[in-house]
Specification:
Shape: globular
Distance between the termini: 31 Å
Helix content: 25-40%
Oligomer: single chain
Largest sheet: 5 strands, parallel
Strand content: 15-25%
Length: 214
């Protein structure tokens, strides 16, 4: 189940350059690293006049494009952090650029001579980039080692128990990782929740109006 670490800082501080360097270094260690970016102003990832763009406009949902060495998927749905993290549970680690108010640990990036961005704790590490926003090799190496440790901590065994209508349902392997990663990723974004351990979730019919249920 993926552990999330934020890459935060002022605009132009070098967040993306640092994230790119870390992904390359961590990939060499065998880790699978996902990337989540907060696009405040929205984004456009496909031309509106392409075949897939026209089908998306027409209402197809989802739209999937299969290339020789990649898959592109575009779907409509709630634009929430929980939904995004649920699509990254297969990764060993997720680097999230932006999300300054998120509860997960963060690496704060400041360009030399620039102002340090105010962010919500915890701050895992501080990095000062060069005049053009480039990270130093020593910082990339140091942070990579720390992130490997973070990923290893997240890889500890997790026991998942699921009961559906009073019947135990086995959740092992990929199915277990999907459920655990989605639930923990969702809970971890809630205010006041930091590094959740045991999570109990009950889903059932809503009680009649006016009736209280313990």
């Amino acid at each position: 189940m993926a552990r999330v670490v934020g890459i935060v800082g002022a605009s132009g501080s070098g967040k993306t350059a640092l994230a790119s360097a870390l992904v390359a270094r961590l990939g060499a260690t065998g880790l699978t690293v996902g990337y989540l970016e907060h696009a405040h102003a929205g984004f456009e990832i496909d031309r509106s006049d392409s075949d897939s763009g026209r089908l998306h406009t027409a209402g197809a949902d989802p739209v999937v494009v299969l290339g020789p060495d990649e898959i592109f998927s575009r779907e409509r749905g709630p634009a929430t952090t929980e939904q995004a993290l649920g699509r990254l549970v297969h990764c060993d680690l997720v680097l999230a650029e932006g999300f300054h108010d998120a509860p997960w640990p963060k690496i704060r990036v400041t360009r030399r001579g620039g102002e340090r961005r105010d962010v919500t704790p915890p701050v895992l590490a501080e990095v000062e980039t060069g005049p053009n926003g480039e990270p130093a090799d020593d910082d990339v190496e140091r942070l990579s080692a720390e992130l490997v440790d973070v990923s290893n901590q997240a890889g500890e065994a997790v026991q998942i128990t699921l009961r559906v209508d009073g019947r135990d349902v086995s959740l092992v392997g990929f199915a277990g990782r999907i459920v655990a990663g989605t639930v923990l990723g969702m809970v971890g974004t809630l205010k006041g929740v930091d590094n959740p351990g045991t999570v109990e979730l009950t889903v059932g019919p809503a009680p009649p109006d006016g009736e209280l249920r313990p």
